[in-house]
Amino acid sequence: MPELEVRHLPADSAPEDIAARLAEDGAVVIDKLVDDASMDRLADELAPAMKASRTGPDEFSGHSTRRTGALIAHSQAARELVMNEKILATVGKVLGHATNFQLHLTQIIAIGPGGEAQPVHRDQWAFDFFPFPDGYEVQCNTIWAMTDFTEKNGATRVVPGSHRAGDGRRYELEDTVPATMQRGSVLLYTGSVYHGGGNNKSDATRCGVNITYNLAWLRQEENQYLSVPTEIARELPDDLLRVMGYARGAYALGYVGNLEDPLKALRGEHATVESTGLGTYEQAIERAEKMRAEPLGKSD
């Protein structure tokens, strides 16, 4: 296991270098990937939704933590974070063993003063605790710092290298290290790395934007089709809609009615899935055979 620290990379790092760090440590911070003005705009656009959010009902959600979802429906700035080119390119490398990936969830996690540390966990346990093969990543996640993340105010805590530790491990708070970062920075981590929100010992709320991506053949944690009303979705650009899930998840997943392309169906147009460019059945079989021949954990 590497030295216990969450390492940092500069904002101009190449996606392949970021993916390589994720393969090694399971987590990495990119410093100041967006500017303060972007975070100001995000905070302004989401202020009403955040104010209306309730604190969590249990220890895992956090009795002093407010979680605000459906960010795409409420914020143009959030849409820009979802579609950040460097992040999408990195996710494409981390999850490149599947046909494509999709948006898994969007939420603001605001840990209030006195908030207790979250139990250490793997995010991929959301899939009914299914024991995915070691080295087979199903998620690539981000937490963007809306405020500075410090050890005192509840920075996300990580066990670097634990993505290789196997399933069902138990870690305590003292096994973790804080992913400290400045506002506008982003923590990337895999669905297999053990982590948890920190305890907030400060007198201010720690806010982070949790945007995660998963393999498109798995169910989304946040249902984007209902979180973003149809009348809003129809006004969004095609590339964002495809990331949201308005695309096939593989050769035969996610079509509408009589083999129609979901994006075309949303817009009231008609096009069969053959026109979406994800290939034929024979190409899908060829891809599967290639995947079986490659070692797990290969990022591109």
Topology:
Elements: E1 8-9, H1 15-25, E2 27-30, H2 36-52, E3 65-69, H3 71-74, H4 76-82, H5 85-94, E4 101-111, E5 139-145, E6 157-158, E7 177-178, E8 186-190, E9 195-196, E10 206-215, H6 224-227, H7 230-233, H8 238-244, H9 262-266, H10 281-293
Parallel strand pairs: 1-2
Antiparallel strand pairs: 2-8, 3-4, 4-10, 5-8, 5-10, 6-7, 6-9
Helix pairs in contact: 1-5
Describe this structure as you would to a colleague:
The chain is α+β, with helices and mostly antiparallel strands. Helix content is 27%, strand content 17%. The strands form two sheets. Strands 1-2-8-5-10-4-3 form a seven-stranded mixed β-sheet. A three-stranded antiparallel β-sheet has the order 7-6-9, with no helix packed on it. Strand 1, helix 1 (15-25) and strand 2 form a beta-alpha-beta unit. The two termini are 23 Å apart. The mean pLDDT is 92.
Q: What's the helical proportion of residues?
A: 25-40%
Instruction: Give the amount of beta strand, in percent.
Output: 15-25%
CATH superfamily of the largest domain: q2cbj1_9rhob like domain
**Using DSSP, what is the number of strands?**
10
Number of helices: 10
- Tell me the strand order in the biggest sheet: 1-2-8-5-10-4-3
Cα separation of the termini: 23 Å
Regions with pLDDT < 50 over 5+ consecutive residues?
A: none
**SSE string, helices as H and strands as E:** EHEHEHHHEEEEEEEHHHHH
Key traits:
globular, 300 residues, alpha+beta, 10 strands, 7-stranded mixed sheet, Jelly Rolls, 3-stranded antiparallel sheet, single chain
